[in-house]
Amino acid sequence: MSLLDPVKHVLSTILATTHDGLTAVGAPADSALAWVVGIATLVVLVRLALLPFVVHGVRQAHAAARARPHLRQVADRYRGRTDADSIRRQMEERRTISAEHGVGRLGCLPVLVQLPVWLALYHLVADVASGTAVGAMGPELVSSFGAASVLGVSLAGRGYLGVGPAHLAVVAGLALTAALLSYVTQRYVVAPNTVVDGLPEAMVTAQRMMPALSAAGLLVAGGVVPVALLVYWVCSSTWTLGQSFVIARWWPTPGTAAALRGRG
Q: Which UniProt keywords apply (predicted)?
C-alpha cells in the first residue's frame, strides 16, 4: 500500500461524485465533457483546500524579504571571521533577526504538505487513464473514463502520433496550451515577484532558464502521458497562473520588480 493511497481515495471520491452529479442532470456518462469538468472541479477543490498553505508561504516570503537586508549586514560584519565565538554570535544574531521579522524555521513546510496532494492527484488521473480502479473510481467508472473522447481522441490515449490529424491536433493543442501557461506564469508573473538580489549568479541563471525548461518539459511529456493528464495540466496551470497573478499584483514580495511596479 502506497503512502499516497489514502489521499488518492479521497480524491477519487470527489472525481466520482462530480461525474455522478453531472450525469444525474443529463450529461452522458461516457462524455468527455463530464470527465473534463470532473477533472477541473477536482483541481479547483484541491487548490482551494491548499490556499491556507499558499497564504502562509506568501507571508513567509514577505518576512524573508524584509529580513534579508539585515541578514546581509550581519554576514558582511562577520565576513572572514571563522573562530567559534564569532560563528556562535553570528548565528544568534541571525536567529534574532529572523524572529523579529517572523521568518519561520520551517519555511518549506507548506510546500512539503502540498506535495503529497499534488502527487496523489497526478497519480490518480494517470492510474484511471491507464484503466486501473482507484477507490471510488471502480471498474465501471474507469471504463467510462476510458471511453470518453475529445474529437474522437480517448482521454486514455497518448502520444502525438495517433489515428488521423485530429489526434495530433488534440494532443499537441493541449500540450502547447499547458506549456504556454507554464511559460507565461514563470516568465512574466513569478520571476518579477522573486527576490534575486544577493543570490549566486548560477542560481540567477537557473531561475532565468526555468520558464523555458518548464515549457519544454511539458511539450516532451505531452508525447507520452495520457490525454487526461494533459487536461489536468491545463486546468492546474490555469489556476496557477491566476493565483500567481493575484499574489504578484496585490501581495508582491517586498524588494521585487513586482512590488516596484505595484507602487508605480
A: Membrane, Transmembrane, Transmembrane helix
Q: Cα(86)–Cα(213) distance, rounded to whole angstroms?
A: 42
* CA-wise closest residue to 44 among 121, 110, 112: 121
**Would you call 160 helix, strand, or coil by DSSP?**
coil
Reported as a single tens digit per residue, the pLDDT across 36-86 is 999 999 999 989 998 998 998 899 889 988 988 898 899 888 888 888 898
- Do residues 240 and 185 lie in contact, with contact meaning Cβ atoms separated by under 8 Å? yes
* SS3 state at 260: helix
**Location of C-alpha cell 483541481:** 43
What is the per-residue pLDDT across 114-163, written as a single tens digit (0 to 9) for each? 788 888 988 898 899 889 999 999 999 999 998 999 888 899 888 898 77
Domain layout of the chain by residue ranges: 1-147, 150-264
